[in-house]
Amino acid sequence: MKEVDSYTLIILQHQFGHGLMNDQEEYILLRRLLTCANHPSLTAGHRLLYFHWLQHFPENKPAAVSSRDSNLPSILNDSLYPAFFPQIFDGQDTTMLKLNILSQCYTPQEIQDSAASTLFGCLLPLQKSIHYGIPGRPARTLYRAMFKYYQRHHKTMLQQDIYKCLLNIVIEHSKFAPHTINFIECVRKVTPDSKFPVEFLQELTTNLMMLQPSGIHDDLEFNLMILERAAQETQISPKASLQYLHTLLHSTSLGSEGNWLLGNAILSVCHSIMRFHDTDDIFKELGDLLFVMFTDYQDLDIRDRARFYYAMLTNLSSEKISNILSSTGTDPTQSVTRLVTGGAQFTIAPPVMHLQESILKLTRISRKIQTEEIAYDTFDQYLKTVRTAKSKPVIQMDYFLHYDKEVSVPVEMEKLYALAVHIETPTNYKHIQDLSLVSLFKDTSGKPQVGCQQITLNFCPLQPIPAQMPVSIVFSNSESQTCACHPDALEVNFGDIFLPLPVVQDKKVTVFTALWDYVHEEQEDSTNTTCAESVCSLLCSWQQISDIVNRHLKDYVVPSHNKDTIHIGIFLPPSWHLLFKVTPNQERVVVSIATDNWTILPLVNEYLLEVEKDATR
Asked: Which of 105, 165, 306, 442 has CA 20 to 30 A from 25's CA?
């Protein structure tokens, strides 16, 4: 039956009722719609259309009595319910529609029964995706389905099943906290008097308090979302949350890293606590936390905001604090002024002015190679020391910080004060601390030359891959205006992270040979190894490649007994190796490659192609 035929029959049945079909013919039409709705060869759009017709089946109703509401036909009996169970060929939209229909077919009781088990059993495939931490549409479908269940059956045993499922999801994967918080907000709208949100948030925060602060650093952003939402419930005491955050700042490197986003998330928790709770009961705990934030946290904006909250806590009543933080659409400083002094006559400092064109620029001067030589007795001991070393190798790069000569500089920008240089560090590099400079004058730093302001940056790769790091510089000009500019991003190329083998010169030949044999044996004998060998051919002469090695790779050359072979041993932070054997082959050069990290081979190939281009220029 084609879609047009089905649609025609449904329209006619809707218009004429018993005048067109009897009950048996109507049942046959219903079965036909169910078959088409589950047919795997139809597109998702067609199947959804059939399900839509099933939800609005006319069922011998006169046209005047018809409704736009979704109501299942009464002739849909228990034997047809399995047609709505999710199947392997169902997309997320089809699965959601089926689960919605099933929630209308089955009615659970206040005790555990087969209806509740059936409904929740249909969610198992989606729960499996969540169990493996798969975000996106499967997660949204699961939460939407559970909300549909809750809407219709919140007074039944199904509520407890939803409660346990949500709790397990967030405990196992904190990244689903935004989905869960949105679910709670929707529950609050559907059942304003329900204890579900408060009890759930209380249980969730209790479980969170049981975790070691050092173990939640990766998921801290999502855990702070939970604490912020829990702080908005007056029935949940925030004292334990404040003590936990205080311990978190003291036992981790969060404060020294100065992450702006996480700092704001902690202050958002404080904001909710001060807004919804009586500060007299938590004065000590909240005061201690804010004091640590505005004295130790390495971000100026976070310190200023924490100091503002601390001033309110120590100078205003709980009622006034709540009124200030509850005001919307007004500047909080104006709110403080009105509540404390009765007027709003103080001038507000202008916001940070972001320059459209950066007047400052960073130009690389040099790269310093610093390696710690490892003392060892055997090759196995060397590998173990490299892989378990607590201190990671650091690559130092010096830069000139100067004015960009291609940008017109206003007079008030020729003398800058209190500069803060921030490097946005990617996750595969260790965090770089912000740099502070007292001043920068165009007279002395107008060009990248001797006498210009210099800065040194320490790059510590956690993975041997290149990176681009955005830069932002905040400063005050000669008119005391706070400004910010964004110079070109710093580029750390693959060749920039090369380091010599971390052993004394006399042992480099031994380590190079042992590493090459180790990679070869691992690749031959083990199926689950990170070691790999490869070969690359370069279209350049032996003399050209020798010149390139002398100019760029001489620090990594390992002595070779064969004059027609160049051995190059490279250490890649934090604990990997890259070995080259360069040999001539007629008008080409053959580079044999060995590495204990096969994932870098595409980067090695790109690097060697750049070497080839440089050699043939």
From this structure: 105
First vs last Cα of the chain: how many Å apart? Answer: 70
- Which of 367, 368, 361 minimizes the C-alpha distance to 448? 361
Question: What size, in residues, is the chain?
Answer: 617
Q: Determine contact, residues 313/274, Cβ cutoff 8 Å.
A: yes
Is 353-496 a CATH 2.60.40 domain?
Answer: yes
Task: Indicate the residue type of 219.
Answer: D
Q: What is the pLDDT of residues 160-184, one digit of tens each?
A: 888 989 999 998 888 899 999 999 9
The DSSP bridge partners found for residue 584 are: 589
Say how far apart CA 96 and CA 141 lie, in whole Å.
6
Q: List the domain boundaries for the chain.
A: 1-63, 90-194, 219-327, 353-496, 498-615
Q: What is the average per-residue pLDDT within 57-66? A: 50
Three-state secondary structure of 341-392: HCCCCCCCCCCCEECCCCCEEEEEEEEECCCCCCCCCCHHHHHHHHHHCCCC
> 10 Å Cβ neighbour count for 69?
7
- Domain 498-615 class in CATH: alpha beta
Q: Indicate whether 482 pLDDT > 70.
A: yes
- DSSP bridge partners of 468: 491
H-run or E-run covering 512? helix 508-525
User: Dihedral of CA 32/124/139/147: which sign?
Assistant: positive
> Could you tell me what percent of the chain has a pLDDT over 70?
88
Rounded CA separation 255/36 (Å): 60
CB of 482 within 8 A of CB of 476?
A: yes
The DSSP element (H or E) to which 544 belongs, if any, is helix 542-552
For residues 396 and 368, is the Cβ–Cβ distance under 8 A? yes
| One fold for 353-496 and 498-615 | no
Q: Decide: pTM greater than 0.90.
A: no
Report whether 551 contacts 573 (CB < 8 A): no
Residue 352 · residue 482 · CB < 8 Å: yes
Give the HSE-up count for residue 430: Cα atoms under 13 Å, Cβ half-sphere.
16
